[in-house]
Amino acid sequence: MFKNIVTDVFFDLDHTLWDFEKNSALTFNKILSENNIEVDLADFLKVYVPQNLAFWKLYREEKITKEALRYQRLKSVFDILNMVVSDAMIERLSQQYIQYLSSFNHLFPNTFEILDYLKPTYKLHIITNGFQEVQDTKMRNANIDGYFQHIVNSEMAGVKKPNPLIFELGLNMAKVAPENALMIGDSLEADIAGAKAVGLHTLHFNAHNEEQHNFCPIIHDLIEIKNYL
What we know:
229 residues; alpha/beta
């Protein structure tokens, strides 16, 4: 579908290549246990996952700071679970979460297979809203950093997806026109709508089992990218 048009492929990182939920669960299992926080991991994650997504949305919309995001997503979970956890402990957990998160390196199935398939033919890049110090370590530890020519993050761009400026920065760094570029990501708001607004082709990796839509083609496994490139 995009084979004779696209020269450059931009990927989101978290929830698209790097299995954020799996790696995050492993991190919480480690730090909650080490700090003697008595909570069932499944109960904790059932609350944390949607809270984290909600606070990331606020962060994307410039309504909270990075520091507030890291603190409030944990504070809100303990409040919902009716657990009394001190601010000092929340800060400790927040710091340890960032410290250990990138030490886990699970990727979505077929990540290496599709990157190996694409790399000889296309120039590959990353556009991520994640924090630079964490994202660089994630990619290095997962052994995927060598696949990508340019890695654009929101701290570098000064804005977050879906702001058009971050996509324009990626296009400028790659020296490619939007009509020759494809964005692949999990977020309809940040990745798909953001990229389409700048004129990129888009492919939605439906990692969250969202409802069917007509915004762009949908895939449920990364290997399906072969059907389009």
